[in-house]
Design a protein that fits this description.
By secondary structure, the chain is of the alpha+beta class. Helices cover about 65% and strands about 15% of the residues.
């Protein structure tokens, strides 16, 4: 029996020793796990910082590209406008030259040459009309007796006229023009009834 007791005591001591060893090992494992977690957290923070820096660089690059694009398109728009104005002005320079010639001719005109001055002015009007047609500007047709349309006509006077129906054009004061379906200037008219 004593032998059994000795064995039990030995077994109990071994169990205590193994528990003590396990307890001693557990804090070391816990410290190792904490160190691993801290290292992983530091690595994650570093990765996050790197990603953040990379995203910031990409953002700044995109912002710079957009700013350059905006400036470039603004300059192109200004150049297009300047070119369009120059092209239209160039077309009308010939008309201005002819007007100057007509004025000089009219100054020296006598009763016999007045018809030629009138003919020259009519030619100037046709030349200007041709230029407008060439650049895409169309005249809005309006005649006496035509129905008044506020989309194309501007009424500045109202008159009673038995020969005309209600809301019909009695007289055209100023021609109207449109470009690609957009009214540039309404036809200025007198409206009847």
């Amino acid at each position: 029996m004593e032998e059994n007791k000795d064995e039990e005591i030995l077994n109990a001591q071994e169990e205590e020793n193994s528990e003590a060893t396990a307890e001693e090992a557990a804090p070391e494992e816990k410290e190792t796990e904490d160190t691993v977690k801290e290292t992983e957290a530091e690595e994650a923070a570093e990765d996050s910082d790197k990603k953040s820096e990379e995203l910031e660089k990409r953002y700044m690059s995109l912002y710079a590209e957009y700013d350059n694009y905006r400036k470039r398109t603004q300059k192109e728009k200004e150049n297009l406008y300047a070119d369009a104005v120059a092209d239209v002005a160039k077309e009308f320079l010939a008309v201005i030259d002819n007007i100057d010639r007509a004025v000089e001719t009219a100054k020296g005109a006598d009763e016999n040459s007045i018809d030629k001055v009138i003919e020259g002015i009519e030619l100037l009007g046709r030349q200007a009309g041709d230029i407008l047609t060439k650049i895409g500007v169309e005249e809005i047709k309006a005649e006496r007796g035509e129905k008044f349309d506020p989309n194309f006509h501007e009424a500045v006077m109202h008159v009673e006229d038995e020969d005309l129906g209600e809301q019909e054009i009695a007289m055209v004061f100023t021609k109207g023009y449109m470009y690609k379906g957009k009214v540039i200037r309404h036809v200025v008219v007198q409206v009847a009834n």
